Amino acid sequence: MKIKHIIWDWNGTLLDDCWLCVESINKSLLKRGLLLIDKEKYLDIFCFPVEDYYIKLGFDFEK
What we know:
Elements: H1 18-31, H2 39-45, H3 50-57
């Protein structure tokens, strides 16, 4: 079987992937020694522009 198309549902309209977003950001937070988050915290602080979300998580873009 040859795959012609891949549909990625990043915003969760077709598939609830919130758990994956939390899991992946927690790996980055752990690597940087920052506090981990849960689904409730993720839903509370996620925003656009996404850079603001990372700042809320504690990322320092000056480093």
